[in-house]
Design goal:
The complex is a heterodimer. Chain A is mainly alpha-helical. Chain A is 63% helix and 2% strand. Chain A has helices at 4-16, 18-24, 41-62, 70-79, 84-111, 120-143, 147-160, 167-175, 182-214, 231-242, 246-272, 297-305, 308-332, 344-366, 375-378, 391-402, 425-428, 431-440, 454-464; strands at 29-31, 225-226, 243-245, 336-337. Chain B contains two helices and ten strands. Chain B has helices at residues 17-44, 46-49, and strands at residues 56-62, 70-77, 90-97, 103-107, 118-120, 125-127, 134-136, 141-143, 155-158, 161-166. The chains are: A mainly alpha, B alpha+beta.
C-alpha cells in the first residue's frame, strides 16, 4: 500500500496534472546536440532576472521613491539596514551580469543562426527583451538617485530635446514635467518596478513559448542549409532520431552554470560592494563630473567623439536603425547556412561590434576629452621644467597654471588630455605660431586674446619656448 | 466537437441568443475600454497637452549681491516646486554683471548634453566636465562639441531685485 506521502502526491497530481505540464515543458524533447555549454546562456539570463526581481523586491521594502528621501534611504540601506549593503550589491552586480550574459546569449544565437526560419519571432522577442533590459539598466541608474543620476537625467532630456518637432514634448514626457523634480523619480520608479519588469515577464513567456513550439536551435553543422520547404520536417526527424528530454538530459549544464553564476554574483557583491550612491542629488552642487554606468559608457564616448555636424542626426537615427536592422535580421537572412564556420560576415560583424563598443567603453572610463577641472590648482608644473629659467619664463609658467591651461594640456603626464600635451610644444610650433595659437585659439582651443594682456602673452610664450 | 446548447436556442432565426450576447458583450467591452482609455491615456500623455511654458518670474536676489564685471553662481528655488522635491527644487545658474545696469543670467546646463558648466574667473571661461565644451564669459561658444552658446535666462530688475524667468530645464528644443 502507498504511504500517506504518495497518496497526497497522487491526490495533488490528479488535480494539478503536473506530469502533463512537465512533459509539455521541461521534459520536452530537444536535439541531443544542444547538450553543450553554448546553450546555457539563455537560462543564465533568466536566472539573473529572477535574482534581480527577488533582490529588487527586498530593496523596495526600504527604498523611498521620492526626490526628497531617496538618497537618504540608500544611505540607510548601505549603513543601517541589516544586510542592506549586500542586497544593494547583489542587485547592482546582478544587473551587470544580466546585461553581460544576455549579450553573450545574443551573440551565441546570432553566430549559431538560431534567428533563421522558423524562429524569427524568438529572435525578435529577444530583441525586445534586450531593449527592456537596457531600459531597466537606465531606469535603475536613475533610482540610485545621486549626482550621477540627476545629471544623467539631464543628459537624457538633452538628447530628447534634439528630436525635431516634438522635442520639447518628449523632454516633458521623460521628466514628467518641465524640470527634474519629484515626479521625475516617481516616473522612473514606476517604469523600473512595474512597467518594465511586467513587460519582461510577459515577453519572456512568449520567448519560452516559442522555444517550445518551434524548438531549440540544433547545434549547427557546416554545410547543413536551412530551407523553408524542408526545415521543419528535418527538425521533426532530428527530434525523433536524436531527441532527448531537456530535463533531465540537458538541464545539468544549465544547473551547473546557474550555480556558478550565482556564486560569481555573490562573490562580486561581497568583494566589491554596492555602487554608490555618490554625492546627494542637489543640482546646486555643481562640482561633479557625471558619468554613466558601464553599459552606457560607449554611448557617452560616442557623444564626445562624433563631429558636431553629424551628432544630432546619428544620435537620433543610429539607435533606431540598429534596432530595426536587428529585428529585420531573420527576414534579411532567414535561410541558408547556420554554422559560423560558413558565415564569415557574421563572425566579422560580432568582432567589429565588440571591438568598437569595447574600445569606446574603455575610452569612456578615463574620458580623455574631459578637461581635468582641478588640474590648474592641483597638478603643479614639474620642478625640472622650472630649473634655470629666467624670471619672465617663470612668470609664464605661473600663468600657465593660473589661466587653467593645464586643465586641458598635460605636462610630464599630469593634467588634462583634452588638448595636446605641451612637453615638446616648442619643437612643433614656432614663436609666431605659439603667439597666434594663444591669442586666437582654434583647433578646439578657446581664444585667450581677451583674457591675457600683451605682457602675459609674452611671458607665457617665453615659457612654452623652453618646452622642447 | 458536438454543439451542446443548454439554453433554448432559436436555431431557425438568423441570430441566436448566444451570438447576440457575444456581440453585445464585445461591443460593451470595447465601448467601456475606449471610455476608460480616454482618462488613462490623457493622464499618461498629459505632458503633451499641458502648457509647455510653465515658467514664472522669480527673484534671484538683490542686485547689490552681484559685483560689476563678475560672474557668480546663484541657486534659486524652482517656482513650481512640490513639497517632496527635496534638493531638486534648487536650480543653479550663473549671473554675470556686465556693468551697473546690464546683466546676463546663464543656465547651468551645457548646451551639448546638459551637464553643469563651471566658471573659471582666471581664464574667463565656462568649462563643461562631461565632453569638454567651453564658453566665453558672454556665454558664446568657445570650443568643444556644444552646438550653440549657453542658454540665457530672460531677466529684469524689479524693486532692486534681479528676476529671471525660471522653472524649466533648457534644451535645444526649448531654450530659455
Amino acid at each position: 500500500m502507498a504511504g500517506p506521502c504518495t497518496a497526497l502526491a497522487l491526490w495533488l497530481e490528479e488535480r494539478l496534472q503536473v506530469r502533463r505540464l512537465y512533459e509539455a515543458t521541461a521534459g520536452h524533447k530537444v536535439p541531443a546536440s544542444t547538450n553543450s555549454w553554448f546553450y546555457v546562456l539563455g537560462s543564465g539570463t533568466l536566472l539573473c532576472f529572477v535574482i534581480q526581481v527577488v533582490t529588487g523586491i527586498c530593496l523596495a521594502f526600504v527604498y523611498v521613491p521620492s526626490t526628497d528621501q531617496a538618497w537618504t534611504s540608500l544611505q540607510y540601506l548601505n549603513h543601517q539596514q541589516a544586510l542592506g549593503w549586500l542586497l544593494r550589491a547583489i542587485h547592482n552586480w546582478g544587473s551587470t551580469f544580466m546585461v553581460a550574459i544576455m549579450t553573450l546569449h545574443m551573440v551565441q544565437t546570432f553566430l549559431f543562426g538560431a534567428f533563421k526560419f522558423p524562429r524569427e519571432l524568438t529572435w525578435i522577442s529577444g530583441c525586445v527583451l534586450l531593449l527592456c533590459t537596457l531600459g531597466m539598466a537606465f531606469t535603475g541608474q536613475v533610482l540610485r538617485f545621486d549626482q550621477d543620476a540627476y545629471w544623467g537625467l539631464g543628459i537624457g532630456a538633452s538628447i530628447m530635446g534634439r528630436v525635431p518637432m516634438i522635442g520639447a514634448q518628449l523632454v516633458q514626457l521623460l521628466l514628467a514635467g518641465p524640470i527634474i523634480a519629484g515626479e521625475t523619480l516617481s516616473r522612473f520608479f514606476t517604469l523600473h518596478v512595474l512597467v518594465l519588469p511586467g513587460s519582461i515577464l510577459a515577453i519572456v513567456s512568449l520567448h519560452l513559448r516559442l522555444v517550445l513550439t518551434k524548438g531549440i536551435n540544433e547545434y549547427p553543422t557546416p554545410g547543413k542549409v536551412v530551407r523553408r520547404e524542408t526545415y521543419e520536417a528535418e527538425y521533426e526527424q532530428l527530434l525523433h532520431e536524436k531527441g532527448v528530454p531537456f530535463a533531465p538530459h540537458v538541464i545539468g549544464r544549465d544547473l551547473v552554470f546557474a550555480g556558478a553564476l550565482t556564486l560569481a554574483i555573490l562573490a562580486c557583491a561581497v568583494v566589491f560592494g554596492p555602487a554608490g550612491p555618490s554625492g546627494p542629488p542637489d543640482p546646486a552642487l555643481i562640482h561633479t563630473a557625471p558619468k554613466p554606468d558601464f553599459f552606457f559608457l560607449s554611448v557617452y564616448a560616442v557623444l564626445a567623439l562624433l563631429p558636431p555636424y553629424m551628432e544630432t542626426f546619428l544620435l537620433l537615427t543610429a539607435p533606431l536603425a540598429g534596432i530595426a536592422l536587428l529585428m529585420a535580421l531573420p527576414f534579411i537572412s532567414g535561410v541558408g547556412e547556420k554554422s559560423p564556420r560558413r558565415r564569415p560576415v557574421a563572425v566579422l560583424t560580432v568582432v567589429v561590434a565588440f571591438l568598437t563598443l569595447g574600445s569606446l567603453a574603455w575610452l569612456g572610463t578615463f574620458a580623455p576629452w574631459s578637461p581635468r577641472m582641478e588640474a590648474w590648482s592641483s597638478t603643479p608644473i614639474p620642478t625640472h621644467y622650472l630649473q634655470g629659467r629666467s624670471p619672465l619664463e617663470r612668470r609664464g609658467a605661473a600663468l600657465m597654471q593660473a589661466k587653467q591651461c593645464r586643465n586641458c594640456h598635460a605636462l610630464d603626464g599630469g593634467g588634462g588630455l583634452r588638448g595636446p600635451a605641451l612637453d615638446g610644444v616648442a619643437a612643433r610650433l614656432t614663436h609666431d605660431q605659439l603667439i597666434r595659437q594663444v591669442i586666437q585659439g582654434g583647433g578646439n582651443m578657446p581664444a585667450y586674446g581677451k583674457n591675457l594682456n600683451p605682457s602675459e602673452v609674452t611671458a607665457l610664450v617665453a615659457f612654452m619656448e623652453t618646452l622642447r | 466537437m458536438t454543439e451542446t446548447c443548454g439554453c433554448a436556442c432559436a436555431q431557425d432565426t438568423g441570430v441566436s441568443r448566444r451570438k447576440m450576447m457575444l456581440r453585445l458583450g464585445a461591443g460593451m467591452t470595447a465601448a467601456g475600454a475606449a471610455l476608460m482609455g480616454v482618462p488613462i491615456l490623457g493622464f499618461v500623455l498629459s505632458a503633451f497637452t499641458r502648457p509647455t511654458h510653465a515658467q514664472e518670474w522669480v527673484s534671484i536676489g538683490p542686485i547689490e549681491q552681484f559685483p560689476a564685471e563678475q560672474t557668480r553662481l546663484v541657486v534659486y528655488q524652482n517656482p513650481a516646486t512640490r513639497p517632496w522635491d527635496g534638493d531638486t527644487a534648487h536650480v543653479p545658474c550663473w549671473v554675470r554683471r556686465i556693468d551697473e545696469q546690464r546683466f546676463q543670467v546663464f543656465a547651468i546646463n551645457c548646451t551639448h548634453l546638459g551637464c553643469p558648466v563651471r566658471w573659471f574667473p582666471e581664464s574667463k571661461l565656462f568649462m563643461c566636465p562631461c565632453h569638454g565644451g567651453a564658453f566665453y564669459e558672454d556665454g558664446s561658444h568657445a570650443s568643444g562639441p556644444p552646438p550653440r552658446g549657453l542658454f540665457e535666462y530672460q531677466h529684469k530688475i524689479e524693486d532692486g531685485h534681479l528676476m529671471v524667468m525660471g522653472g524649466y530645464l533648457p534644451t535645444l528644443a526649448e531654450p530659455l
